[in-house]
Design a protein that fits this description.
599 residues, alpha+beta, Jelly Rolls, Immunoglobulin-like, TIM Barrel, 3 domains, six-stranded antiparallel sheet, 32 strands, globular, binds (2S,3S,4S,5R)-3,4,5-trihydroxy-6-oxo-oxane-2-carboxylic acid
């Protein structure tokens, strides 16, 4: 899906700002009174302040008036949403013009001309909903609970460890574009053996009739370096996209009819090669070592709503500490963040919101919650359709980004329970069929599904492990943790000698300023000791090709017995102040090269 841009033939108008807002029942035919307002983009939860409203589950509404721009008969008017969490129905003047399920991917709705012809203003209404259940991604336990005052209240017990923020999380745009237009473009390259020449391939989808499609490739100096012929273009002396040294070409696309350009668009893309071989993860044929983080889109006030300054600060902190990568745990991040990573050369492991596919996960984490039904995960989940849809939407959105080097099919599913293989095999295949770059596909493995229990690892290109030796296991005993961690990593390496291993999560909750002479969890010293122990073991495992800390920063979660106002496994606090351990990470990671660490 194309990112909205202004070009000679396209205008994109920002609809961010203050909208009328309401939680609860309403009908789109009726004007929203606007007693309450909400800022777009943001999560409504923290901004709204009231405790009950913060935890509200159900329908909620946004509405605003928009001025109708000039639209001629060859143009169309489109509403585009970066994301609405978790589902949305879009109305104009009370008429439904579209809907979308899934809270982390963009969608657009064409406004029928009959709704705006002769009008100066339009009423745009969004009916959103933040319910999660066993058919949605992420997975939540949905219940309707009787309150002490006798009323019934909807509640979602998250099957995952982050606050269920909701709202119009990403920008809303009003787009004026030609009816005949580029709908999508896919760009991928083959490189010569010596990586000096690229054959760039183009696949495109065009709406409407046209005579010719012209694509020029422009380099960073603004020079035309190649032109498309027969849907491909050759770049000799290609400038590769490298880790922390990005280079982006621009494909300048013209759709021509009767000798006239009727639509133009520009898509930036990097050229690099990714492949897995002999237990190594190769970028541009060099063995890459992942240094970085699992993250969240999570900041004070904005919640999960787009915060571009925080995104840039995070990536600057990431570079400052010597890291080179992050995973979009546990959902697709904003397009703005992906574009930033692509521009800065930061490597991204791209994840769908398939988290909570573990029937008993909540019971394991949340000691107070009794709602989780027992039983086999794969007999109970009804997520197949949502899962397939979001994989399609993620690949459609992110396929051209050079920064994306691997796709994640799910985080910590019950891959040790019977049925896991049947569930995941078609989804992994789907990624492979959709992605012309054939990026590696992985599944982020949970501790319960060790090398002897897991049922899906043979389907994966890379083994991604989340391990908490010294935290959830051997809590407070780093000596025992070291033995367990080493034993398990060696077992994985022995079982799958051809597959690289990436530690996608490891960490210990730490409250800055809490100190101890002894090995006491939650202290800064324990976090230091935990990482020292982990890194000692990682360095012994030749096929372990990356370490991504859990988490970049502290983040908000639901209220749970084991959460002290959120999850505190960040190397940085929620307001991005460093914990003590940041200094030792900086030392370690500046000494570890991006390439060739374990050759
Ligand atoms: C995990 C999950 C992550 C949690 C983390 C933790 O394994 O993937 O979402 O936040 O553990 O801190 O418990």
């Amino acid at each position: 899906m194309l990112y909205p841009k202004n070009t000679k033939t396209r205008t994109s108008i920002d609809l961010n700002g203050v909208w009328n807002f309401q939680l609860g029942e309403h009908f789109a035919e009726k004007r929203l009174e606007g007693k309450e307002v909400m800022v777009v983009p943001s999560s409504f939860n923290d901004v709204i302040v009231d405790n009950d409203k913060r935890n509200y589950i159900g329908d909620f509404w946004y509405e605003r008036q928009i001025a109708v721009p000039d639209v001629d008969e060859n143009q169309e008017l489109v509403l585009r949403f970066g994301s609405v969490t978790h589902r949305a129905t879009v109305y104009v003047e009370g008429y439904q013009i579209g809907e979308h399920i899934g809270g982390f991917t963009p969608f657009e709705c064409v406004i029928p001309a009959k709704l705006y012809d002769g009008k100066s203003h339009l009423r745009v209404t969004i009916q959103a909903n933040n319910k999660l259940d066993f058919s949605t991604l992420p997975v939540g336990n949905y219940v309707e609970e009787k309150q002490v005052d006798g009323t019934i209240r909807s509640k979602v017990y998250e099957n995952f460890d982050f606050f269920n923020y909701a709202g119009i999380h990403r920008p809303v745009k009003l787009i004026i574009r030609p009816k005949t237009h580029l709908q999508d473009i896919t760009i991928f390259s083959d490189l010569s053996d010596d990586l000096s020449e690229a054959t760039v391939h183009f696949e495109y989808q065009i709406e409407g009739d046209y005579d010719e499609l012209k694509i020029d490739i422009i380099d960073e100096m603004g020079q035309v370096v190649a032109e498309m012929e027969n849907n491909q273009a050759i770049i000799s002396d290609v400038h590769l996209w490298e880790v922390l040294n990005a280079y982006l070409y621009t494909a300048r696309i013209h759709i021509i009819k009767s000798g006239k350009t009727i639509d133009c668009y520009e898509e930036e893309f990097g050229i690099r090669k990714v492949r897995v071989a002999n237990g190594q993860f190769l970028i541009n044929e060099k063995p890459f070592y992942f240094k970085g983080f699992g993250k969240h889109e999570d900041t004070y006030i904005n919640g999960r709503g787009l915060n571009e300054a925080a995104n840039l600060m995070d990536l600057n902190l990431l570079k400052e500490i010597g890291a080179n990568s992050f995973r979009t745990s546990h959902y697709p991040y904003s397009e703005e963040m992906m574009r930033l990573a692509d521009r800065l050369g930061i490597v991204v492991i791209d994840e769908v919101p398939a988290v909570g596919l573990f029937q008993n996960f909540n019971a394991a984490l949340d000691l107070m919650n009794q709602t989780t039904a027992k039983g086999n995960t794969w007999d109970n989940m009804e997520t197949h359709q949502a899962h397939e849809q979001v994989i399609r939407e993620l690949v459609a959105r992110d396929k051209n980004y050079a920064c994306v080097v691997m796709w994640v099919v799910a985080n910590e599913p019950a891959s040790h329970e019977k049925g896991a293989k049947d569930y995941f095999e078609p989804l992994i295949k789907l990624y492979k069929t959709l992605d012309p770059q054939q990026r590696p596909v992985t599944l982020v493995n949970i501790m319960n599904a060790g090398p002897h229990e897991d049922e899906v690892a043979d389907l994966l290109d890379v083994l991604c492990l989340n391990r908490y030796y010294g935290w959830y296991k051997n809590h407070g005993d780093l000596a025992k943790a070291e033995v367990g961690l080493r034993e398990e990593l060696l077992a994985w390496q022995k079982k799958y000698p051809e597959k690289p291993i990436v530690m996608t999560e490891y960490g210990a909750d730490t409250l800055p300023g809490l100190h101890s002479m002894w090995e006491i969890p939650y202290t800064e010293e324990y976090q230091m000791g935990y990482y020292e122990m982990s890194h000692k073991v990682f360095d012994e495992i030749s096929h372990l090709v990356g370490e991504q800390v859990w988490n970049f920063a502290d983040f908000e979660t639901n209220v749970m017995l084991i959460r002290v106002k959120g999850n505190h496994k960040g190397l940085f606090s929620r307001n991005r102040e460093p914990k003590q351990v940041v200094r030792s990470f900086k030392k370690r990671w500046t000494e570890i090269p991006n390439y060739g660490y374990k050759q």
